[in-house]
């Protein structure tokens, strides 16, 4: 859909699927883009010359090159959108002033948010996950006042695993890159910054790539159930219960299942042989990832519970 030179328009509740542009807006001040599904396009949404835009509760997925591009636009509210599985940038901003980007899910793109000459923006409470190169990268076109990126604030965002493309010669050291001036990576009122999953508290700050920018107050997320997995990873990465250190009740805690035994912390019987993972590992000493530990054609559960044979000996009576 292409909309040009229209004020006060609302695009709501549509499906834009399998086009070059899912939605293209040019010179459409005071407009709203709400609750749309925008999938399998080359570019999901492209906006030029926007003013006072509200973009909220949209699902933008599987774009070839761009999730959403916003150029020469001011006073944008961008919130509660899901942008996922994008071949290039999930969000690209060019020469934009005064934007509020909050509570968005940005998952599995090349770069989560790419900004050029971005000024007076706030990026808060976004979940930025599994983007190949950077979660956020802020550049500038030049050194004049209208080319710089400046006066932006970033806080209470969650950055997880935005460092996957380690094959590049200039592979990043941090999950974000910032060349803007007079920008802050923490909230001046609460003195709280952002969550970075690789930050372990060994330093008092988190160093970003770019021009020696730092998050001075990085957040460390609690481990409510004491299983050595922080709550955010349990909720968003491993899908385990952050309040129960043994989510599947198999007598193995979540951390040990993931990093010691390689079993499934959400399935009490990872190999479906009728024995719980904890019983296999702690009691019977069988392989919790192989339903027939001794290779005799009987699964471990049947040997223990039905035939009373030894699941670790293919010939229990040695005949």
Plain-language structure description:
The protein is mainly beta and 319 residues long. The chain has two domains: 2-215, 3 Solenoid (Pectate Lyase C-like); 231-307, no CATH class. The chain is 9% helix and 34% strand. The strands form three sheets. Strands 1, 2, 4, 5, 7, 8, 10, 11, 13, 15, 17, 18, 20 and 23 form a 14-stranded parallel beta sheet that branches. Strands 3-6-9-12-14-16-19-21 form an eight-stranded parallel beta sheet, with no helix packed on it. A two-stranded antiparallel ribbon has the order 22-24. The mean pLDDT is 92.
Helix content: under 10%
CATH class of the largest domain: Mainly Beta
Compute the number of structural domains.
2
Question: Which fold name fills CATH's third level, the topology of the largest domain?
Answer: Pectate Lyase C-like
N-to-C terminal Cα separation, in Å?
A: 76 Å
Instruction: Specify Rg, calculated over alpha carbons.
Output: 25 Å
Please, how many helices? 4
The low-confidence parts are: none
Could you give a quick summary of the protein structure above?
With 319 residues, the protein is mostly beta strands. Helices cover 9% and strands 34% of the residues.
């Amino acid at each position: 859909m292409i909309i040009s030179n229209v004020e006060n328009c609302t695009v709501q509740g549509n499906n834009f699927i399998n086009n070059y542009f899912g939605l293209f807006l040019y010179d459409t001040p005071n407009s709203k883009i709400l609750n749309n599904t925008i999938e399998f396009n080359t570019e999901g949404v492209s906006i030029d010359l926007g003013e006072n835009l509200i973009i909220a509760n949209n699902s933008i997925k599987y774009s070839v090159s761009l999730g959403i591009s916003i150029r020469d636009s001011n006073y944008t509210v961008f919130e509660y959108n899901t942008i996922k599985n994008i071949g290039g940038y999930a969000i690209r901003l060019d020469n934009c002033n005064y934007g509020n980007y909050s509570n968005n899910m940005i998952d599995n793109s090349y770069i989560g948010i790419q900004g050029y000459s971005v000024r007076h923006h706030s990026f808060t409470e976004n979940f930025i996950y599994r983007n190949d190169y950077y979660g956020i990268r802020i550049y500038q076109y030049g050194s004049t006042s209208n080319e710089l990126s400046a006066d932006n604030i970033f806080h209470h965002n969650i950055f997880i695993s935005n460092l996957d493309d380690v094959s590049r010669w200039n592979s990043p050291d941090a999950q974000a890159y910032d060349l803007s001036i007079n920008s802050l990576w923490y909230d001046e009122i609460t003195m709280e910054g952002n969550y970075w999953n690789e930050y372990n508290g060994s330093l008092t700050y988190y160093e970003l790539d770019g021009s020696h920018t730092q998050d001075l107050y990085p957040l460390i997320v609690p481990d409510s159930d004491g299983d050595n997995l922080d709550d955010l990873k349990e909720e968003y990465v491993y899908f385990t219960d952050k309040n129960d250190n043994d989510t599947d009740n198999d007598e193995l805690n979540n951390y040990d299942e993931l990093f010691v035994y390689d079993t499934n912390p959400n399935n009490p019987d990872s190999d479906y042989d009728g024995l719980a993972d904890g019983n296999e590992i702690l009691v019977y000493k069988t392989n919790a990832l192989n339903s027939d530990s001794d290779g005799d054609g009987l699964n471990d559960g049947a040997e223990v519970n039905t035939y009373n044979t030894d699941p670790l000996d293919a010939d229990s009576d040695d005949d």
